[in-house]
Design brief:
The complex is a heterodimer of chains A (480) and B (452).
Chain A (H helix, E strand, L loop, with lengths): L19 H10 L23 H5 L19 H4 L1 H9 L6 E6 L6 H4 E2 L4 H6 L20 E2 L4 H8 L3 E8 L7 H10 L10 H9 L8 E3 L16 E2 L15 H18 L5 H20 L25 H14 L5 E5 L10 H25 L6 E6 L20 E6 L27 E2 H12 L25
Chain B lengths: L1 H4 L12 H10 L8 H6 L2 H10 L28 H12 L3 H13 L9 H13 L5 H9 L2 H6 L13 H11 L8 H10 L3 E6 L3 E7 L9 E3 L2 E3 L3 H10 L3 H13 L6 H13 L5 H8 L2 H5 L7 H11 L8 H9 L20 H15 L17 H11 L7 H17 L3 H18 L10
Antiparallel strand pairs in B: 1-2, 3-4
Helix pairs in contact in B: 5-17, 8-12, 10-11, 13-14, 13-15, 17-19, 18-19, 20-21, 20-22, 21-22
The chains are: A alpha/beta (480), B mainly alpha (452).
């Protein structure tokens, strides 16, 4: 049970699955303060009707942070300790980076890419499909057209920089945001798994001394990166991990923060576990501060510039987070897995056009700018972007100018080294499942296994449960 | 407490010092006000524990009423964040500190989030839990089971004979009374859910969920078999069967102990506490009293204080009350927003800190110091202050908390570093002002302050 119960009033085009805490999280992460009446509709519909909340949040356990820094950031071993040299030696300048981008809420993949001229499609989607006038046809299947707002994706695809997976999902799909998102985050259809698939990868392939190997750029831990052992980090933007003390500035502030970190350094191995927990956090704050210091100028503004122009909208810092990420990669911050979440909530149960069109435009333009940025800096061969959403949406649009939760959706891989083209096929619109949803033909766990094996040269069996039972796909180009 | 004094449960027998009283006030309350720990120590262990567990009459809120940044009274029902501040204020000002602390424990034990309901229903639940703070667990469970916010949170009011919903029936056993897989199976969960059918509510366009009530026509009045017993069980039977289950006493005692002491209960004493709990008819107070008198409470390792206790503790130590609703968004940064536990199993008391939440606590320190910052443009701070005097003055600001020699040494080293940084005449005064502001911020961030 996932959609709001018919007859119950709703004040939002998102379903109750999108809780107020999501909104609070984003607002706080952007450094703004919540304004009470603006975004507290006190929705009369209870959030989480029919959803087992325990399943939803268990995957959100964050890992801890630990020591890391890099010489090219102007940091010395004296400052950072012996852990750096070891960690730096383990990560070369050409090490691959995977960027996991979550388009939250369940993107309507049938509005993103659809057979605009197909009568069945037109009947299912009289108002919320790709218009026949789109003109952005897909090379591999000219009956498919991109939504006009996704023209950046069309360009990336045509340039061989993007693989389209139009029917990704899993058998016996769960239509709950929380449950399905959790499945994707943990890389298994298992409600009890408490580590993310990339977190488990870092547990087997990462180091105990480099928190930047798994970087969440959502301002809080992204469950995909939740590890059991090795440290990962959470920031918003590299220039946003700033702290202050009222009435303290200049050298005195730096010395005060040094003092707090030094206290942590000295007590992080205390035999008292509570002292050690506090001290470890204080110590790690010092490390993150020192590592990110080159990205902020004395005014608290970004100290880096981008070679390309990113979209700029007051509603979202998604493009700016990507710009910051490119700058961090360029500066040699030892990243391996990065996860970030779109600001747009694509849970378009009603008035879809007002959310989907600008949201997809922002997401696609931002990702295209990020790709151009990496290429301009000569870093593109190191980075692969994986774009996913928890599910697609119902084939038949609903009576509220929206679409309800579906099953198979569209996944994307972006980068200079991807195979390009189309993986799998566009799922039939005439043989939908019993819920009226499209049926998947590419398993997301098979994509995870293939990414681990081909991008990270990692045996997937050590990361993905039952890895051998999933198909493998050729994800990288022949030249890769 | 008489029957416990004859029991095999160990009691702390050493001299009850100010340091012990301080730990008691942090774990069974929200930290000492200046001088409070010394006064409590003077009452001895028995007197100190009784003053917390057996408060007389109604709670009094001491000090100025809370208000928002504009000086207006809080509006916890209608304004985002004011609900958090409303309860935080009680934590700061109530003269019945353990009652508030136990209410916080029940909030995490029966973790309910307002995401599923609204502030009005959450505050109603909060008052209910406070009324049972040191009362009877069986009665608390009955009231939680029919509590509107809980009925919405775990789908109790959509559990009916036509469409059973196992959510509450499962969590009641797994998280509230027995523990996962401790003497029940999926069939018990299913049958328990059937017994719990019948609660429902209406919906109004204006106010949302309303009129929570038991509707016999929605109740499955058939025979259920739960834990091997059969009958036409109702929600009342469901609660009774859960507390009477053989694994409930150990679950209860261990879970409650875990909120207050960081090491496990020695086995024999656990059995004795379980027996005492059952013999009392599921009373909470005697078990809490035994825990607060236990040697491990005073001699065991420290516990990280939860974020909301940290915030309330700073206000208490500096004799302040709520003058800003910034505390609500600060709470989110620290990882503990009242009425919004992360999930149905409550907050993870073993993991309160990482870099983001440490930074959040620093923001909380800034919030506590906001009105007290030494204004470096107008105030003339004593320019003759030595580095040691600066540390002593900052400690006095916070009620003279005890720090280890190493931590105090760290603060003094910082203080000297600032002193040595003075290179121009104009900096003499300015740096001493900056230094005092910095020291006041650093003290609550020390590992000693954040643990008890």
């Amino acid at each position: 049970m996932t959609d709001p119960t018919p007859g119950r009033p709703s004040t939002s085009n998102c379903c109750d699955g999108f809780s107020r805490s999501q909104a609070i999280r984003r607002v706080l992460a952007s450094g703004k303060r919540p304004v009470a009446r603006e975004w507290d509709p006190r929705m009369p519909v209870p959030a989480g009707v029919g959803i087992d909340r325990r399943q939803l949040l268990r995957g959100a356990a964050g890992g801890l942070l630990s020591v890391y820094g890099a010489g090219r950031l102007g940091l010395t071993n004296r400052v950072l300790g012996d852990g750096i040299a070891r960690a730096a030696a383990l990560q070369g300048p050409a090490s691959p980076i995977l960027v996991s981008v979550f388009l939250q809420g369940g993107v309507d993949s049938l509005a993103l890419l659809g057979p605009a001229g197909d009568p069945t499609y037109q009947k299912l989607r009289p108002t919320l499909g790709v218009p026949a006038t789109s003109g952005l046809s897909l090379r591999e299947d000219p009956s498919l057209y991109w939504h006009p707002s996704a023209s950046s994706f069309s360009q990336l695809h045509n340039a061989g920089r993007m693989t389209v997976i139009p029917g990704i999902g899993y058998t016996d799909p769960d239509m709950s945001h929380f449950t399905s998102r959790h499945y994707w985050e943990v890389g298994a259809t298992d409600t009890e798994l408490e580590t993310g698939w990339l977190g488990r990868y870092l547990d087997v392939a990462g180091t105990p001394t480099n928190p930047f190997q798994g970087l969440s750029m959502d301002g809080q831990m992204n469950p995909t990166l939740a590890s059991a052992r090795n440290p990962v980090a959470a920031i918003d933007q590299p220039d946003n991990f700033s702290m202050y003390i009222n009435g303290v500035w200049g050298d005195a502030f730096e010395w005060a923060m040094d003092s707090a970190s030094a206290l942590g350094d000295g007590q992080r191995h205390s035999h008292d576990p509570a002292i050690a927990q506090v001290a470890q956090a204080a110590s790690e704050v010092g490390i993150v501060r020192r590592t990110l210091k080159p990205f902020v100028n004395s005014n608290g503004d970004p100290a880096y510039t981008s070679p390309v122009t990113y979209p700029n909208t007051g509603d979202s810092d998604f493009p700016q987070r990507l710009a910051g990420l490119a700058a961090m990669i360029a500066a040699g911050v030892p990243l391996r897995c990065v996860a970030l979440t779109s600001d747009t909530q694509f849970d378009t149960h009603s008035s879809q056009v007002g959310t989907f069109d600008p949201g997809i435009k922002l997401a696609t333009d931002s990702l295209a700018a990020f790709q151009s940025d990496l290429e301009a800096r000569g870093l593109a061969d190191r980075v692969l972007i994986h774009v996913w959403s928890e599910f697609g949406r119902r084939a038949q649009e609903n009576g509220s100018d929206g679409t309800d939760h579906g099953a198979a959706g569209t996944g994307l891989l972006i980068g200079t080294r991807v195979a390009g083209g189309m993986l799998g096929e566009f799922p039939s619109l005439t043989s939908l499942d019993t819920n009226g949803n499209q049926v998947e033909n590419v398993d997301y766990r098979g994509v995870y296994c293939s990414l681990l094996e081909q991008w990270f040269d990692q045996d997937a069996a050590a990361v993905i449960p039952s890895a051998s039972s999933f198909p493998r796909y050729q994800l990288l180009g022949s030249g890769a | 407490m008489a029957h416990l004094s004859r029991s095999p449960i160990a009691q702390f027998g050493g001299r009850f010092t100010e340091a012990h009283a301080c730990r008691l006030l942090w774990r069974a309350g929200f930290g000492p006000t200046p001088g409070q720990a010394a006064k409590l120590a003077a009452r001895g262990l028995d007197g100190a524990v009784a003053s917390l567990t057996r408060p007389a009459g109604r709670a009094r809120l001491i000090g100025a009423a809370p208000h928002n940044d504009k000086g207006q009274a809080l509006d916890p029902i209608n304004t985002w964040g004011d609900d958090h501040c409303w309860w935080l204020d009680r934590m700061v000002r109530s003269n019945q500190q353990l009652i508030e602390r136990m209410t916080l424990i029940w909030h995490s034990w029966f973790a309910t989030s307002e995401e599923a309901s609204n502030a009005q229903l959450m505050i109603r639940q909060n008052r209910m839990m406070r009324s049972h703070a040191l009362g009877n667990f069986h009665q608390l469970l009955l009231d939680v089971t029919k509590d509107p916010a809980m009925l919405l949170w775990l789908n109790g009011s959509s559990n009916n004979k036509y469409s059973p919903n196992e959510n509450y029936g499962r969590e009641m056993l797994e998280l509230f009374t027995l523990g996962a897989d401790r003497g029940y199976d999926q069939d018990d969960v299913h049958q328990n859910a059937r017994a719990l059918t019948g609660w429902t509510n209406d919906w109004s366009q204006g106010s949302g969920p309303t009129n929570f009530h038991f509707d016999p026509t929605l109740h499955d009045d058939g025979v259920k078999t739960i834990f091997g017993q059969s009958g036409r069980f109702t929600w009342v039977d469901s609660c009774r069967l859960a507390v009477q289950h053989r694994t409930h006493p150990s679950f209860f005692v261990n879970k409650l102990w875990g909120y207050l002491i960081g090491t496990p209960i020695p086995g024999a004493e656990a059995r004795a506490l379980e027996r005492a709990y059952v013999a009392s008819g599921f009373e909470v107070r005697p078990i809490v009293e035994a825990i607060l008198r236990h040697p491990l409470f005073y001699e065991g390792p420290r516990l990280v204080i939860p974020p909301v206790v940290f915030c309330a503790g700073m206000l208490r130590a500096s004799r302040q009350t709520i003058v800003t609703t910034d505390w609500a968004w600060v709470a989110s940064l620290t990882g503990q927003v009242l009425f919004q536990p992360p999930n149905v199993s409550g907050w993870n008391y073993a993991d309160w800190l990482d870099t983001a939440r440490w930074a959040g606590r620093l923001t909380a320190v800034n919030t506590a110091l906001n009105k007290r910052t030494i204004d470096t443009n107008s105030v003339h701070y004593p320019s003759g202050e030595t580095p040691s005097q600066a540390v002593a003055n900052a400690l006095r600001y916070w009620g003279n908390p005890t720090l280890s020699p190493g931590t105090r040494g760290n603060l003094e080293a910082f203080s000297r570093r600032v002193e040595h940084g003075i290179t121009a005449t104009w900096e003499v005064l300015r740096y001493r002002e900056l230094r005092q502001n910095a020291l006041r911020a650093l003290i609550p961030m020390t590992p000693e302050w954040q643990t008890a």
